[in-house]
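Hi everyone,

Forwarding the result from last night's run.
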Amino acid sequence: MNALEIRNLRKTYGNYAALDGVSFSIPQGTVFGLLGPNGAGKSTLISILTGLVEPDSGDITVLGLDLKTHSRQIRLKTNFLRGFSGVPRGLTAPELLEYYMRLYECWDEKKALCLLGELGLKDNRSPVSKYSSGMRQKFFLAKALCNQPKLLLLDEPTVGLDVQAALDFRKKIKQLRDNGTTVLLTTHHLMDAEELCDQIALLNRGKIIAVGTPDELKTRVKEKEVIRISTPDGQQVAKTLNLVRGVKAIAVKPHFVDAETTGQAHFNQILAALSSAELRVSSIEVLEPQLEEAFLKLVKKT
């Protein structure tokens, strides 16, 4: 069973279509990334899933339940975290977490203290409103996990985090997935998406323009193959490569040479040519497209 199924979802504001026939599904126990430029419709979709906005039309099934008719049951089985969230002043982490757990009808003092302890917040008596960005996000992760959600919605969760806090957050998301939690992640950080997501949907102008694994999306835009040869003999390697049929362009750098080709056959020819020339080569690798390149090219096409 899929954790989330969205079919032909539409939402308009006047003449502007924020979502225009969006459809996709998320298998249970996976991290699914929703990427898109500003204004693509990501926040509208999250707002619909969290009950803040009503769609104009379309069907949403969460954990086998229809969102229209089972919103309360779904709310108790899901949770969400946004990149920027305000907090009431004066409340400590245990006090504020108790408030949220009572909203989700799951208040348990022992579980609350255990969850705060796992995130290093159990003994912090400062008000959450005075936490650093990283510490505050840790608290909101505790809030997002307080009801042991089957589906977790993360909307730009690493915004404003320092490097270590972002690393810790990504590690926690991987642990959640490994334990069976399904995660829907929206982010502008493509490194987060590439590292965390099992599948990614690209949303632009309210429409899904591509769905696939990170590798599948990168393969879709691969128009050339770049082979990097690490060598101290850059000029000699370049001269040798100029004689290889199928090498389209050569770039000589201080410690390596990049050769642009058009396929595996040319890679084999390069290996043979370098071997015959007996040049000093420490490594040869095929450079794969980055997710950012795939994202920009696919968005540009629409």
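The longest strand covers residues 2-13.

Cheers,
N.
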